[in-house]
Amino acid sequence: MKDSPIVQFLGALGEITLLGLHTLRELVRPPFEWRLTIVQLEQGGVDSWSITMLTAGFTGMVMASQFATGLEPFGASLYTGNLVALGIVRELGPVLTSLLVGGRVGAGFAAEIGSMAVTEQIDALRALGADPVRKLVVPRVVAMSIAMPLLTIMADFIGCAGGLLITVLEVGMGPRFALDQMIASVAVSDVMHGLIKSLFFGSIIALVACWNGMRTYGGTEGVGKATTSSVVIISVTILIADFILTRGLMAIYA
Amino acid sequence: MSGPNERPSPRRDEDSDRADRVRPHEVPGAEPIIRFRGVCKAFGPQVIYDGLDLDVYRGETLTIIGGSGVGKSVMLKLLIRLLEPDAGDIIAFGQNVRDMDGAALLKLRARVAMLFQGAALFDSLTVAENIKYPLREHRWGTEAEMDARVTEVLQMVDLPGVEEKKPSQLSGGMRKRVGLARAIAMKPEVILYDEPTTGLDPINVRRINTLILNLQERLGVTSMVVTHDMDTVFTVTDRMAMVHSKRIAFAGTPKEARTSDFRYLREFVQGGWGTLDEDL
């Protein structure tokens, strides 16, 4: 009999948690796999800068357009820059970046590791005396945990720049005044709030994709399924984790 | 050990392959180095083994035969704990594989190597890096010593000069031979072959068969060969074991197999031998 979706979800959560604990254990056991981590940092992080810039820039511009129009009847369009900056730094910067990078990188990780699983390369790793978690999961988790906060900082800057552009053009504020307003509205805790979230999201992307890739079976069809389901699980998990982390961080910073 | 081209291809003996040879299990006082005892394994509702028993003696080549999907390869994976048995014991070199901790398992995997069905070479690494992989994991020696070992094992499988190629640049037969080179790099005492000749042309089949024989005869390696290829069975085997009805239904020499009363086994053997039993 097939398990209910809730049981399946809880089972998956348990397995991902165990994989996370195994990853932590291997992380502190020397020697650290620097070379593999740098390769993943390049593939997962550096290669994701263009999609991050594009997403953040347009999101900032769209937000500014909406706020400028929406606040005008209340005579509050001067606050457009403040709202855009806060929204980007606290929420949309980390979440949108993670969703998009999660789709791109998560699919890549799951497909690569899934292909290794169906061609017995993961079994071969173990047979040759290596730990697949150490060789495949740790470098990806570390790389994404470093890359996501860095990409988020970039998204924050580009998003705010896009918002600033529209604020200046639509609301007619001076660029210096609009920029000062944006800077004044964002506290260090707001930036930290976003960066802490993005660090968790980076780990989630790598862990879920690796977990799904390693349990792939059924040839190329299985790889396709693992890739698709990884993107779905990563997206849903990021949204759920975002809510939990936001509530937690708000409680801490309050 | 020389390359396969320096040695005449093995030929089947009409009555009993390699019949003149004293088989390792026939040596007085021979003790098995690997024992499967009451092994049970299931994948969900599908039961693969239900009380499987088998002994493997030092220095012998044991071929495992059986129908598709009966779990022949599972036996190899259980032995080096790529899979966990549900019940029963697997004793290797006097130690229960189920009770081994990380360090003991690492030692076992240095003593028992496996050639996977599709060779399972790492796509992103060169041939040399693939072969060095187990050497690095087991801290085998210096970089220069590892380079020398790579050259040596590639010569053993008659593939000199392919060190810098990627697996995608090799043919199926060459990939299998590189897989074998990687397996023997650590000088294992036991080699597990999972369908070593499947999908290969006759020349490569003969090459692989010769390599299996050479490793046994010149280095004394113990081999477990899972195969469907009866030509391979009769060329390399000392003993053969048939997996049927979730157990080892037969274990014996090729001669005993051909004269067995077990109809399913005869069907298998004679199918490969090229003569049809009218009773079937």
Q: How much strand of chain B?
A: 15-25%
The overall pLDDT of chain A, averaged over residues, is: 91
- Reading off the top of the CATH hierarchy, the class of chain B is best stated as Alpha Beta
Any idea what the shape of chain A is? elongated
Q: What does it look like?
A:
The complex is a heterodimer of chains A (254) and B (280). Chain A has one domain. In chain A, 85% of the residues lie in helices and 0% in strands. Chain A has nine helices and no strands. Chain A has helices spanning 5-27, 34-45, 49-71, 80-118, 121-127, 132-171, 175-185, 188-214, 219-253. The mean pLDDT of chain A is 91. Chain B is an alpha/beta fold and 280 residues long. Chain B has one domain (4-8, 32-273): Rossmann fold (3-Layer(aba) Sandwich). A six-stranded mixed β-sheet of chain B has the order 6-7-8-3-9-10. In chain B, strands 2-1-4-5 form a four-stranded antiparallel β-sheet, with helices on one face. Chain B is globular and about 55 Å long. Chain B starts with 31 loop residues before the first strand and ends in a 7-residue tail after the last helix. Classes of the chains: A mainly alpha (254), B alpha/beta (280).
Q: Topology, please?
A:
The complex is a heterodimer of chains A (254) and B (280).
Chain A: H1 5-27, H2 34-45, H3 49-71, H4 80-118, H5 121-127, H6 132-171, H7 175-185, H8 188-214, H9 219-253
Helix pairs in contact in A: 1-6, 2-6, 3-4, 3-6, 4-6, 4-7, 4-8, 4-9, 6-7, 6-8, 8-9
Chain B: E1 32-43, E2 46-57, E3 61-66, H1 72-79, E4 87-92, E5 95-96, H2 102-111, E6 112-115, H3 127-137, H4 143-156, H5 172-184, E7 190-194, H6 202-219, E8 222-226, H7 230-236, E9 239-244, E10 247-252, H8 254-258, H9 263-273
Parallel strand pairs in B: 3-8, 3-9, 6-7, 7-8
Antiparallel strand pairs in B: 1-2, 1-4, 4-5, 9-10
Helix pairs in contact in B: 3-4, 3-5, 4-5
